[in-house]
Design brief:
The structure is a homodimer. By secondary structure, chain A is mainly α. Helices cover 68% and strands 4% of the residues of chain A. Chains A, B: Keywords: Calcium, Coiled coil, Ion channel, Ion transport, Membrane, Transmembrane, Transmembrane helix, Transport.
Chain lengths: 663, 663
């Protein structure tokens, strides 16, 4: 690929970016788009909606940049939670790496990493101190409850905890298998919505809809028909529930009277058999992932192995599209394979397009399929909360990206060749040193396509905009009940940002040309995500910055990768002394990493006694505590087991289900 | 090496073994040797000593075999503790491997491993239930106490635990730096012993000794001189102690009112900074290793890295003697290097001796230097108890042996060559498959020399016998106060036994000729160590079978090693299908190992709530509990800080220091 191809790619993407920015600043001023661009605002100001029209609304304005920049970090924290702040700090921090790394490098990177880790762990403690009483702080999840002889699981749990934690045990909720009920409820919910729409709309629409749904059926009042169906489903739900009372799963949420009490049960092995009474921190009630609740130790363990195998298979099979993409950057090879394209490819622009823009676009499209697969893998592993699933998918996706985008492109060979390279560790530095610099231009193009464009399309929110547009076109109006503020897709965004960081550190001294592109990416990203956090995404659950260790580890990985490439390059350039002198650097970096792991990691895993007891003491004199503990006993109810009543309340404004979820 | 060389080696060692056995069965009947062969008996029957002479005492008899066989496992447990039982079971178990492995192999080995792990973990729990109240069950060690502002460490510890563990905290003992005092006390003890001997002996000896010590000094009553010196030292000790009051170390033993209370403080991170208030299980008071008490997190961490580097350096440097030994087995090479030996080596017997017996003897001698070095390394790492140091040294020694004896001999190349082999994992199977079978005869010789002879010399106790003999010759009588029942040197014995097991599993289908030799070794070992546990060794401290995971891991390692060799051999023999079909075997073995680690490992790390609370409940109604808790407060006193008074009590039978240690 030559410079012109690179420039074509940059040009196309710059154009796209400006288009998106311009459209964004116009569209966001349209009140109809408020659910797309400022759902947070929408939720707050639902009441005081106004629909004036003025000319300003049609002018592109950079005002959102100012508004996204202004709030301080603490304000951001209060609005969007610590996860968002941690995510934002990723941008500042890399920014800093690319400013400083040019001068002092690994030392500075490590120093910054240390400071950041320290800063975020202090923030995490401060966040805990300032947090309100929350059910998950008082609760643990117990899995692998041994099969009871004669009594129910519920009785077994109660006996066990009354026996061994008499002073702190409060209550428990045994988990039940509810997938059937859940699907019935989902059906009911859909029907309920349709019914609601139907009642709100006029009779003409009702007739239209009738014809639309059952062209050859006899004409009945569709609203009555729906209501009858709804009642049937509700009866089914009730029936299922009563028959299901015995279908307990050997897992339970156990609540304690104090945070320290739950920490005691969490940290100390409970039963003699370590695969029974397995304790785990409970997630926030709304964060619980009910559908796939695998409870026994063996089951989870086997699923984990299955997932690891499937993950490896996917990672290796994914090399096929990557190799195809690689073919595109080598035009000459493509021409020999597909001779009929010769004429077309000889046009300069087409050639540049194919080598410069197409490969990274195709890669980008293929990659967009992967995050849902990773989420599926992680949910199979038996994690009990959305946040854990996201975190696990995030790690999976990161290494998937590194392997498939970085190594596969750099080494540009078959899967077997790749695996072979990694089976001979001695050769790795020299192979990488030859291959990595050769792919610099591809990665610059990748930064521009995948980075810049994805950032601007993130701002533009193309897909939600289309959805919203279609809905308004067909349904006629936005369905307010249906509307939910979106959650930041951390699992797909973090690996992308981190991958650029790995590129930046690795190419730092091989092809510094990549740095300005990355710099633009980080600056853009900083301001765009700030804007999105303030206007678009709402935190559904809060992990307290648990994503940070992933960031830390990937930075260390990229540093070591850079060192290995450096060793290889010094070796290739016949500077064995320099090569040998570089060897201690990765060793020292890994030792530094080990130190950080010991120094900070425990804070991200659990809160220490000091914090727990202090928070508990605060509660002791609080009169609202009894009320909270009463609520706590029912906090971990499966939403499928909560009371539903659609048929009677069909004309109420908000559905009981939505209310139940918000408890 | 040819068959005759092997036979020579077997012959020599058989001879040595029979000699040792014969001598043992005669010498053990001599009352004078009771401290060497049955110190346990000696301690018990000190009072009822009798010195009759009869002819039977001079006849070799196999009666000890019967006596070593008779006691059941439970009796052995009651006499020598669980560690001894675990050690004994190693012998039965391998025995079993070699019986069964011939038929069903890996599956059976894994099944047996699982059963053994299960059995031992159940034993461990049962041991805990049946154990008496012991101070270390109620105590934790806290290191990294943050520097106090204004107050002492002792005050800081008290404040912290009263604040955060008000209901369970009992007392604490801050550790002090006492190496100076300890050396003074040692001096005093030596003097005290001399004085005791002097007083007990007649005046002629007193005169002799005087001349012996200071040939040109003026003649004084040596007893008075010693007593004065002793008083000086005692004054010094008192002075040091008073000046040392401030020299506290930021570490303390903290005792709690219940076992569960100490478990809570142990398992939950205490301070916000994970490198402060680092908690750790306290060892038994007499197991504490006082001299090298490194207290801060950073210091221990740096020492650990230093030890790792030193360990690697030693392991690699040790290849030099190994290579020399290797040279001996290749006579032709030796002859080219040292041509003047040609004449000597051409004698068949000398040649056989050099190739058959000498190499493993030299190796054996070199190896005997290593255990003390490993103990030194482990003590540098900052472990606080003798048992932890032993366990760590045991692991170090095992991998040292595997690397230096197995790999270095098998691959018989320079250190660099060895490292190179392991940097190309793809080649490992084929390289091993070529080299491992070639060295079978060397390892058979090694089993015979190192295994058989070390077992019989273990029974014969050559070194202690010589010591005892010399002492009697020069001092005239055994010094009873000086006498201590020896402790089983697990750290050097376990790696040796395990190494033979690794050899057995690895050579199982390459050179089954090694199996009968190993079988003899295990049968011998079983009966000899049973004898030694019953008669010689006393358990000084008890880890509750914590050595077992090392045994388990090394068996898994040897299985995987065998699989790799098998893969290589099938590859060499052009059976790629068989080779590929073997690949899942090590993977499955490792998965099995992972399962065992999850299923059993936690039991070896800590006792679960269920056990702790049950034991605590038992104590609640026990009237002796208050008395125990009072004693607990002073259980972890540094022996150097206990009252000593030699000068006055110099004519008493037992020294106050020895009494103090036994508290």
């Amino acid at each position: 690929m030559i410079l012109s191809a690179l420039l074509t790619s940059v040009g196309i993407n710059l154009g796209l970016c400006f288009l998106f920015f311009a459209l964004y600043s116009i569209l966001r001023n349209q009140p109809g788009n408020i659910t797309v661009y400022s759902p947070l605002l929408f939720n707050e100001r639902k009441a005081q909606q106004q629909d004036e029209f003025n000319l300003e609304r049609l002018l592109p304005s950079p005002g959102w940049v100012k508004r996204a920049w202004q709030p301080s970090e603490d304000e951001l924290l209060s609005i969007t939670g610590l996860d968002a702040v941690v995510f934002m700090r990723m941008f500042i921090f890399w920014l800093w790496i690319h400013f400083c790394a040019a001068y002092v490098f690994t030392g500075v990177v490590c120093y910054l990493l240390y400071c950041e880790y320290n800063y975020i762990s202090l923030k995490r403690i401060a966040y805990f101190y300032s947090s309100k009483r929350q059910p998950h702080q008082f609760t643990i999840l117990v899995r692998g409850i041994p099969a009871p002889s004669g009594s129910s699981f519920s009785q077994t749990v109660e006996n066990f905890f009354i026996e061994y934690h008499p002073s702190t045990y409060l209550s428990h909720t045994v988990v039940r298998r509810t997938s059937k009920i859940q699907s019935l409820i989902n059906d009911a919910e859909k029907l309920y919505r349709k019914l609601g729409n139907l009642k709100a709309s006029n009779s003409q629409q009702r007739f239209m809809r009738d014809g639309f749904l059952g062209l050859f059926g006899r004409k009945v009042d569709i609203a009555d028909h729906y209501e009858k169906k709804l009642q049937d489903i509700e009866d089914n739900v009730r029936l299922e529930r009563s028959s299901l009372a015995g279908e307990e799963v050997p897992a339970a949420f156990v609540s304690f009277k104090s945070r320290f009490g739950s920490a005691i049960a969490l940290h100390i092995q409970q039963g003699i058999n370590p695969t029974e009474w397995v304790t785990e921190r409970a997630p926030e009630p709304k964060d619980v992932y009910w559908p796939f609740f695998s409870e026994s130790f063996m089951k989870r363990w086997i699923f984990k192995i299955v997932v690891v195998v499937a993950y490896i298979a996917l990672t290796i099979l994914f090399l096929i599209p990557v190799v195809v993409v690689q073919g595109l950057t080598h035009l000459d090879q493509l021409e020999t394979w597909l001779p009929f394209l010769k004429g077309l490819l000889s046009l300069t622009f087409v050639g540049d397009l194919v080598t410069g823009y197409l490969p990274s676009l195709i890669l980008h499209l293929f990659l967009s399929v992967v995050p849902p697969i990773m989420i599926f893998f992680s949910s199979m592993q038996g994690y009990i909360s959305h946040s854990q699933i996201e975190k696990s998918a995030c790690t999976k996706l990161l290494w998937f990206t590194v392997w498939n985008i970085f190594f596969a492109n750099v080494l540009s060979g078959s899967a077997l060749y790749l695996v072979n390279v990694f089976l001979e560790p001695k050769k790795i530095p020299s192979v990488l040193a030859e291959a990595v610099p050769a792919q610099a231009s591809f990665f610059i193009a990748y930064v521009v396509t995948s980075g810049w464009t994805s950032l601007s399309s993130e701002l533009f929110r193309l897909f939600p905009l289309l959805c919203s547009f279609m809905k308004r076109l067909f349904v006629g109006k936005d369905d307010d009940d249906d509307f939910e503020v979106p959650q930041m897709p951390y699992h797909s965004e973090i690996p992308r940002v981190l991958f650029f960081e790995i590129l930046g550190v690795t190419y730092f001294f091989l092809a510094p040309l990549i740095l300005p592109f990355l710099l633009v990416y980080y600056c853009l990203g900083y301001i765009i995500y700030r804007n999105q956090f303030l206007n678009v995404y709402a935190p559904k659950y809060e992990t307290g910055g648990k994503f940070w260790p992933i960031v830390h580890n990937s930075t260390i990985f990229s540093l070591v990768l850079m060192h290995i490439v450096a060793i290889g390059i010094f070796g290739l350039k016949k500077l064995p002394l320099a090569s040998s002198l570089t060897i201690p650097l990765p060793v020292l970096t890994l030792i530094f990493n080990e130190y950080c792991r010991k120094r900070f990691r425990p804070i991200f895993k659990a809160y220490p006694t000091e914090c727990l007891i202090k928070k508990d003491r605060e509660d002791q004199n609080d009169p609202t505590m009894t009320e909270f503990l009463e609520k706590l006993a029912t906090a971990y109810q499966d939403p499928a087991l909560m009371p539903v009543q659609y048929s009677r309340s069909a004309d109420g404004r908000s559905s009981p289900l939505l209310r139940a979820v918000e408890v």
